[in-house]
Write a structure and sequence with these properties.
Elements lengths: L9 H47 L4 H12 L5 H9 L4
């Protein structure tokens, strides 16, 4: 039986689809956040590995000079700069 405004079960179907859309959008948001967290953890791990390797390596003066130049232009904050100076990297 048709409703007076000319709609039938379309309103219910539309509401169901809109709910599915909201659920899917929430899942997409959650998946993006998980991806962002995994990428951040991966980057943190790389930083630790590369940094540790540099600190433990016997680095040539030329390479150390290049690294110092990179660090000097890296836009670090004051605390980071102090730590690098204390460690002999700036």
């Amino acid at each position: 039986m048709k409703e007076p405004n000319g709609t039938n079960g379309n309103d219910a179907r539309l509401l169901a689809l809109e709910k599915r859309e909201a659920d899917i959008r929430a899942q997409i948001t959650a998946a993006r956040e998980l991806k962002r967290k995994r990428e951040a953890a991966f980057r943190k791990n790389l930083v630790a590995i590369i940094g540790g390797a540099l600190l433990d390596a016997d680095i040539s003066p030329d390479l150390k000079s290049s690294i110092k130049q990179i660090l000097a232009g890296a836009g670090l904050d004051e605390r980071q700069i102090r730590a690098l100076r204390q460690g002999g990297w700036l």
